[in-house]
Amino acid sequence: MSCYIFTEIQLGETVSSEIVALSARFRQKYIGSEYSLFKERHYPLIITILRETLEIIDNYTAFKDIDYWYFYDAIGKFLFGELDDTEDGKILGFNNFHSIWEGMCLTYLLKHTHPCFISYLNSRYIAQ
Questions:
Q1: Is the pTM of this model over 0.70?
Q2: Which pairs from 105-110 meet CB under 8 Å and 24+ separation?
Q3: How many CB atoms within 10 Å of residue 103?
Q4: How far is it, in rounded angstroms, from Cα 108 to Cα 83?
Q5: Minimal CA–CA distance to 79: which of 112, 127, 44?
Q6: Which residues of 49-62 are buried (b: 16+ CB within 10 A; e: fewer)?
Q7: For residue 87, how many other CB atoms are within 10 A of its CB?
Q8: Residue pair 87/94 in contact by the 8 Å Cβ criterion
Q9: Stretch 69-88: mean pLDDT, rounded?
C-alpha cells in the first residue's frame, strides 16, 4: 500500500523498479488499473479502498514492530489526517487534498522553471 501511494504522488522523480512492481501488485489486487488518486471521479473510491485495506492490514497483522507502526502512522495520517506542523516538517492528509496537490505542483514549478518566468507565487503550501 505504501508503494502504491508513493508511486501515485511522484512528480517526475525516478522510482525504483521494486517499488513500481509492488505498487502494481497492490493496484491489481485491490484497486484496478483504470483508477487513480488523481482522477476526480475516482479518488473518493480509492480513499475508501485504501482506508478499508489499512484496517484489514491492521486487523490481520499479528507482529507489529516499530517499522509497522511507522508505516501505519504515515499512511493513516495521509488517509485521515489534516495539515499538521511537526518538528520534521508538514504532515499532509487527504482531508486537505487541494493543498497537497497545490504544494506539489508549485514545488515542481519552482524546481523546473526559471525565476524570471514566475511573476507571483503564493507560498502558503510550499515547503520552506
A1: no
A2: 105/11, 107/11, 108/11, 108/12
A3: 19
A4: 20
A5: 44
A6: bbeebbeeeeeeee
A7: 4
A8: no
A9: 74
